[in-house]
Amino acid sequence: MNRRFFIKSGGIALASIGVALSAPSFIERAVLAQSSERITGGRRKTLIAIFQRGAVDGLNMVVPYGEHAYYDLRPTIAIPKPQVGNIEAAIDLDGFFGLHPAMASLKPLWDSKRLAIVEAAGSPDNTRSHFDAQDYMESATPGVKSTQDGWLNRLLQSQADPQNSLFRAVSMTSNMPRALQGRAPALAISNLADFNIRAGQNSASMQGGFEALYGQSAHDVLSDTGKETFEAVNYLKKVNPSQYKAENGAQYPRTPFGNGLLQIAQLIKAGVGLEIAFTDIGGWDTHVNEGSSRGQLSNLLQQFSSGIAALYTDLGQRMDDVVIMTMSEFGRTVRENGNRGTDHGHANAMFVVGNDVRGGKVYGQWPGLKTDQLYEGRDLNLTTDFRDVFGEVAKRHLGTPNLKTVFPAYDTNPTKFRGLLS
């Protein structure tokens, strides 16, 4: 039996972990020095996946202000066209698309060609159920409910981990996301500030019991893994994450989402072998009073964009080895509803950020917003399957050897990639 799989299947959940920039012996095999040699040598690549749960309104996030129908169909919630001096107007990107004004923190990434946008992307399945659409996106098998594991877990399964890291895949969430469920070990971490081993009502006794079990024999097949696990636990418990100082003047939003991104940065800087990081941010189901340049959606977009900008700034040159990718289960209706909101739609926009990203460009074929161009006469039509974006990041950034194992029953031919990564 795989030793780490035993730990995972044996009922141990790592609830939260603290991290510092120095490490005891168990991390020395994986940790990379915080010197310039660390930045320039051979390094592990990391993917940070961010899920906007609830279906973000991509048309007000990335505004197609060059499309007249956008304003016809959204008389009260449309974002004004870019205008010098108007802080409530869209931020021009390319003469046709603009960012919501609350997302000004991402404009420098666009200008420096570190941010790419994929338009009209999403799932080919026509469901408008949040539950089903999120399941399909995280399993990467649209329309198939029987898939047992998530696409990120299959990605981990597709190639061995040379560092054998306990922290190869970490989700900064209270529960394991569907995308990381599967045979490959992964951790769901709610907060780095407090650590415990959750084993029901008997947590304390269980922890002592597992320590005794793992340490009972130097010849026990579980002994090395167990000792390493608890050495990691005891080491990481001692660190106060509140002492962490973001670099380069980065300012994370003081929200659970911002805190999750900050702690992902901690794990990356600690050199513990993080390859996949996942987090999410909810609240995007804006059926009522969505708002325009200000309001409900604006507040969320400000938090979302400033968190990503802070993470990029904090990691600095480490972003040479990191890609941030965002997703949402589906978009929203082109026409606003009677409650000055939007209902469940179809295609959406995705963001990809990193130093190896060919940014400063909106990728994907724009389908248009005229009635005869809409999906079922109401939604933005799909022109990019989300698996083409996932697949390109998996192949070109993480070096996944066999995309067929990650995206079963889907043609992952690289000719379908958008050219997002250099």
Question: What do you see in this structure?
Answer:
30% of the residues lie in helices and 13% in strands. It is α/β, with parallel strands linked by helices and 422 residues long. The chain has one domain: Alkaline Phosphatase, subunit A, CATH 3.40.720. Strands 2, 6, 7, 8, 10, 11, 12, 13 and 14 form a 9-stranded mixed beta sheet that branches. The chain has a 3-stranded antiparallel beta sheet with strand order 3-5-4. A hairpin with a 5-residue loop joins strand 4 and strand 5. Helix 9 (203-215) packs across helix 10 and helix 11 (256-270) packs parallel to helix 12 (296-315). It is globular and about 55 Å long.
What topology does this entry show?
Blueprint (H helix, E strand, L loop, with lengths): L2 H7 L3 E2 L10 H4 L7 H5 L5 E7 L5 H4 E2 L4 H6 L17 E2 L5 E2 L7 H5 L3 E8 L7 H10 L11 H7 L11 E3 L15 E2 L8 E2 L4 H13 L7 H15 L18 H15 L5 E6 L14 H20 L6 E6 L20 E6 L7 E3 L20 E2 H12 L5 H4 L16
Shape: globular
End-to-end distance: 39 Å
The whole-angstrom Rg is 22 Å
Report the CATH topology name: Alkaline Phosphatase, subunit A
Name the quaternary structure. Answer: single chain
Would you identify the regions where 5 or more consecutive residues have pLDDT less than 50? Answer: 1-41, 195-207
**What string gives the helices and strands in order?**
HEHHEHEHEEHEHHEEEHHHEHEEEEHH
- The proportion of strand residues reads 5-15%
- The number of strands is 14
- Give the CATH architecture: 3-Layer(aba) Sandwich
Q: Summarize the main sheet.
A: 9 strands, mixed
Structural domain count: 1
The first-level CATH class is given as: Alpha Beta
Q: Helix count, per DSSP?
A: 14
- Portion in helices: 25-40%
**Class from secondary-structure proportions:** alpha/beta
Q: Kindly state the mean pLDDT as a whole number?
A: 85
